[in-house]
Write a structure and sequence with these properties.
The chain is α+β, with helices and mostly antiparallel strands. It is 31% helix and 22% strand. The strands form eight sheets. A seven-stranded mixed sheet has the order 28-21-25-26-27-24-29. Strands 1-5-4-11-6 form a five-stranded mixed sheet, with helices on one face.
């Protein structure tokens, strides 16, 4: 067996015979390299041997294989001085590479990177290979099974011919008959003895080998006969030497050419040095020109999604993302339908190589394109509004209240091999050199321009074997496992760099209004990831402790603030904080409410009662822009009133912003008919309307009009009206106005202009 490493620079003199007549090679300072990976048989009379070209991932940053051998010293592998453990690994590794290329070629029928020529027929030539490999034997065994089904059927028929027939001579001579009605009956007849059949034993060994190859390497073969196979510990005993011993014991029991060929193949499997006779007159090969494409396909099939909308993986600027999928978001662990996009890029390097600047820049561009695709759907409705049944479209990255953006995991995956253990076990670890954070502003995790990148190493041997076996169940299990590993690794990175808090606005604070007013302080630091959309996440970069303390102090005056672990639901912590802190008057609270009574009827000029125009405006929530004239002055400090709360039909269901308050005068008519000139009135310019959660009716009476309430007083009224009990709030009592409101039969009513 000859061994070459992909893209390694060999001296021409070292490989001229091995590569003679097969490739046009790049000549750089008398050095040559092969940009293929795979297997071929070179029939040239100077070679006449198998040549494996293995991936460059075997070479470390110092240019050594396993950290010990120079690739040029392994060209003639059978003669190379190396540890037997390493030699065995290379033979088996070559099988996995071949199998992976086969799987790739089968699943990518129109690919242009795989070069394939059918393996030759066994036993029809006059030459034996100088050496055979495990792959030679495996492929020959599989082909033998396909081409010799009639041989197995013939043997099986002969095995059972005459079997179970009664030997009457021995039965009559050796057993006692029961005679009834002059007829003897034999209860224990003697059958013909079955002799040891060496054809059957060889076939059992053959099919046991095929089953082992299928379970271990993923090469599928049809086993159509119901023999009891050798498996588990018993077959391991055959692998450990008993297989060679037993086959030598039964070697001279076979005379047909087919049986001898079968014995040869089985013996070659257990004894790697045994040569099998093959046709060596022409070349055979299975090679891939760009193995990094195969590696990308391996990773994508194992972790990626399919049926991805255009613009996400195949992006509009022509870029193609290696791996793209949706999975659980980073900010909350237990919320349903909280998926986020994951963007991955495979890097097929030599062991230990770091990322280039171009790769890092390109990966950030992928994320920016994904964000824009999402914004086009959610904010612009292009090319259509989001389809909530689509797992890609239902994700909303942008939060309109905080104007923050969700965190998109963006990572690189590179191949790694543990050169000490050469283990095929699963391990995924952060790369020693992590890429830097890209940002436009400091301390803004939830900002569109803050792009986090991470880099992970996966065990190339594990991934290779998993892909090559092509077992759907095993691939699905690892897909879920590795996605969870990537997610938790990104979470750990965020925990290391950021402190996380949960916020809930004080009862008198409108969170949306607060974030708009304090845009510069909170932008990029707050986001709404929780199922309860009244709760907010706050992320603060640990690198800016003084800035963080100032912001926490300011937020604490208007929000309940509790530290939380990333991924934790903060509801219970915030409820505890509410109970401890109680009701507060916030520095940026909502302000106070001026109540007014809106009467339904008014007396017309003809003396009839009509539906008041004022009532119609307020009932239909159409009073925005009008000037409301309040005839009776309310009690309290009018300058504190920020909202107008109309009482309509003895109920409240919303309030208006007060844009401006001014004073006017009127002539007041008293009950006894006297006129009081220059009596003060309020002129209120009405702004936007805000609905309350419900319409509240119970306990709402006309005498509540012309008062100034705090938000806590309003909350107390709403709680009582809903029948939920009382809040223990300060200033919860709503008093009657000092001046009673006239009844509907009175002559004075508020009005609008």
């Amino acid at each position: 067996m000859k061994l070459l490493i992909e893209e390694y620079q060999y001296n021409v003199a070292d490989v001229e015979n091995v590569l003679d007549g097969l490739f046009t090679l790049q000549d750089v300072e008398q050095k040559v390299s092969v940009s293929y990976v795979g297997y071929y048989y070179n029939p040239h009379h100077k070679v006449r041997d198998v040549v494996f070209i293995l991936p460059k991932v075997l070479i470390d940053e110092q240019g050594y294989v396993f950290g010990e051998y120079e690739p040029k010293d392994l060209i003639h592998l059978d003669d190379a001085k190396m540890d037997e453990k390493h030699r065995k690994f290379l033979y088996e590794f070559a099988v996995w590479i071949h199998r992976a290329i086969v799987v790739y070629n089968d699943s990518h029928e129109k690919n242009e990177i795989v070069l394939h020529r059918q393996i030759q027929d066994e036993g029809k030539g006059s030459h034996k290979k100088k050496s055979n490999t495990l792959l030679d034997v495996i492929l020959s065994l599989i082909r033998f099974n396909k081409e010799n089904q009639q041989f197995f059927t013939f043997i099986l028929k002969n095995l059972h011919s005459g079997f179970n027939k009664i030997n009457w001579g021995k039965t009559i001579a050796r057993t006692t008959a029961i005679v009834q009605d002059s007829s003897p009956t034999y209860l224990n007849p003697i059958n013909k003895k079955r002799q040891v059949n060496f054809d059957e034993e060889l076939i059992v060994i053959f099919f046991s080998i095929l089953q082992y190859i299928s379970d271990t390497y993923g090469f599928r073969s049809n086993i159509n006969f119901g023999f009891k196979l050798i498996t588990g510990a018993k077959f391991k005993r055959y692998l450990d030497g008993f297989g060679r011993t037993r086959l030598r014991q039964i070697k001279y029991k076979y005379f047909s050419d087919t049986a001898v060929k079968l014995w040869d193949l089985c013996y070659a499997f257990f004894d790697k040095t045994y040569k099998i006779r093959v046709n060596t007159s022409q070349s055979e090969y299975l090679l891939v020109k760009s193995f990094h494409i195969v590696f990308e396909a391996m990773i994508d099939e194992l972790i990626g999604d399919t049926d991805i909308p255009r613009g996400l993986k195949e992006q509009d600027d022509g870029k193609l993302v290696d791996h793209f999928y949706t999975y659980d978001g980073l900010l909350i662990d237990d919320k349903a339908d909280d998926d986020i996009y994951y963007i991955g890029d495979s890097k097929y390097y030599k062991i230990g190589n770091s990322l280039g600047k171009e790769s890092i820049y390109k990966q950030r561009t992928y994320a920016r394109n994904v964000i824009q695709w999402n914004l086009d759907i959610w904010l612009n409705g292009k090319p259509h509004k989001p389809n909530m049944a689509d797992p890609f479209e239902r994700i909303q990255l942008f939060d309109e209240v905080t104007e923050g953006y969700n965190v998109i995991p963006n990572f690189f995956i590179s191949a790694s091999i543990d050169k000490k253990t050469l283990s095929y076990e699963d391990y995924t670890e952060p790369h020693p050199n992590q890429p830097p954070v890209s940002r436009q502003f400091k301390n803004r995790l939830y900002d569109r321009d803050t792009l986090l990148l991470s880099h992970y190493d996966v065990n190339f041997l594990f991934v290779l074997a998993l892909y090559a076996r092509n077992n759907a169940g095993a691939k699905a299990a690892w897909r879920h496992s590795v996605r969870d590993k990537f997610r938790r690794a990104v979470q750990d990175m965020l925990k290391e760099k950021f402190e996380f808090y949960a916020l809930a606005a004080h009862p008198d604070v409108d969170a949306s209004t607060y974030f708009k007013a304090h845009f510069q302080e909170t932008l990029g630091k707050t986001f709404r990831p929780y199922e309860n959309q009244n709760l907010f996440s706050l992320a603060l970069d640990k690198s800016y402790p003084e800035d963080n303390e100032r912001l926490l102090s300011s937020l604490g005056e208007n929000f309940y603030v509790v530290p939380v672990e990333l991924g934790e639901d903060p509801s219970d912590h915030l409820e505890t904080e509410r109970a401890v802190k109680g009701s507060v008057e916030s520095t940026c609270g909502m302000g106070k409410f001026l109540t007014c009574l809106v009467r339904k009827e008014e007396m017309g000029e003809d003396g009839r009662k009509n539906i008041a125009k004022l009532y119609q405006l307020f009932y239909n929530h159409e009073a925005e822009g009008a000037t409301y004239v309040m005839l009776n002055m309310p009690s309290g400090d009018i300058s504190e009133a920020k909202y107008l709360l109309p009482i309509i039909d003895n109920s409240i269901d919303g309030y208006y912003d007060i844009e401006r308050i001014s004073f006017g005068t009127r002539t007041k008519e008293t009950k006894d008919g006297l006129s009081i000139p220059n009596y003060p009135t309020l002129r209120i310019k009405i702004g936007s309307y805000h609905l309350l959660e419900h319409r509240y009716t119970e306990g709402i009476v006309p005498r509540m009009a012309n008062q100034i309430w705090s938000y806590n007083q309003l909350r107390n009224i709403m709680v009582k009206s809903n029948g939920y009990g009382e809040f223990e709030l300060e200033e919860s009592t709503v008093e009657e106005p000092e001046m009673s409101y006239l009844s509907s039969s009175g002559s004075e009513n508020d009005y609008t202009e």
